[in-house]
UniProtKB/TrEMBL annotation:
GO terms for biological process, alphabetical: DNA-templated transcription
Keyword line: DNA-directed RNA polymerase, Transcription
Tagged with keyword Transcription: yes
SMART domains registered for this protein in UniProt: RNA_pol_Rpb6
Protein name per its UniProtKB record: RNA polymerase Rpb6
Coiled coil spans: none
Cellular component aspect of the GO annotation: DNA-directed RNA polymerase complex
Transmembrane annotation, as ranges: none
GO molecular function: DNA binding; DNA-directed RNA polymerase activity
Top-level taxon of the source organism: Bacteria
Amino acid sequence: MDLKKTNAPVNTITYNKNVIEEPTGNVYEAITIIAKRANQINAEIKKELIDKLDEFATYNDSLEEVFENKEQIEVSKFYEKLPKPHALAVQEWLDDKIYHRNSDK
């Protein structure tokens, strides 16, 4: 997932309920699908962030020393400025990038 190329909003916006529920015909089903995708996105972002921060980690046996690493701070600031996972999931839903199927049908 390329987080830099997304057009998801960083701030909270209001969506038209009819547009959200259009693919499924049920707003609750649509929100459930979006929520599951948001959880997947959150897990991906978290794994990516931990992997990047581990590159800069320094391990010491002393608990008294705390090192501030500029690279770690910059990486953390980048991820803090990204759109939230639910905003990314809603944007994917609106762009019809989420595959879903109803197992009852």
